[in-house]
Amino acid sequence: MKRILVVHFSQTGQLARVVRRLLSPLGEASDIQLVEEVLRPRRPYPFPWPLWRFFDAMPESVLLEPPELEPLSIRPHEQFDLVVLAYQVWFLAPSGPITAFLKSEAGRQLLRGRPVVTVIACRNMWLTAQETVKRLIHEAGGLLRDNVVFCDPGSTLATLITTPRWLLTGRRDGFCGLPPAGVAEADIAGANRFGSAMLNALRCGRERAPAPMLAGLGAARVDPRLIFSERAGAKAFALWSRLIRLGGGPGAAARALLLALFMVYLVVMVFIALPASLLAQRLLHPLLARRLDSERAYFELPSGR
Length: 305
What we know:
Elements: E1 2-8, H1 14-22, H2 24-27, E2 32-38, H3 51-56, H4 58-62, E3 82-87, E4 89-90, E5 93-94, H5 96-103, H6 105-111, E6 115-122, H7 127-140, E7 143-151, H8 156-169, H9 185-189, H10 192-203, H11 227-246, H12 253-299
Parallel strand pairs: 1-2, 1-3, 3-6, 6-7
Antiparallel strand pairs: 4-5
């Protein structure tokens, strides 16, 4: 009997559906004990998000200042053969509750010496968040074995409209010729193929080997066109987060003014700078192709293409 711990926080419910479908082969196996830990922030995050609360979560998310969590339902000293850590991406960073788990003593104790598989459900930019999560897992003494990513299949420009609409209103249906927001239902339905591969690997003891468990399944596919845009966005978010935090905590007048300026800046970036950046990258692709291929190969690890 092998014990698998799955830790997640899903604000919209989408990530929870992905996780349960992905792990369904393990849940049905008689030789696997699946233990689920749903993270519970002491101050719950609303869904749909009120507009101001949504943007007000940005500085602490980016600066990895975690919210307080309710105590875990499991004991920190419990032993597991594998930890599955599933998270959303907020402002190119891991969501606050996942950061809180990774930085807590209980979370670090649960990860210490354990193989870890990360699972991401997001719009399309996850590289910066995963680099942060990899570092926090390493600092806790965990051993990253694989990463599985589920992205919204819509175009970059379409999802800049459909994703905020979903988060701020709760409506994710297609409209005005735009596709529905979120991970495609077909991708969620097919997520169990990763669970089946994970089950086979566990039965062979491969979680203990310093090698990926999901090689050959295309577990994390990178769109190279977004690499430079995400890198620039991450730097901008970090700069603005530090500036806004100088204005104080949530509710401070100076913070509110700086946050309003950031919202204006973001609109300009999204509708002017980002399309220009994508066009420039397309024109310069022949010159950047080798570098982008190298970066894509790096970010698609551990399992690789």
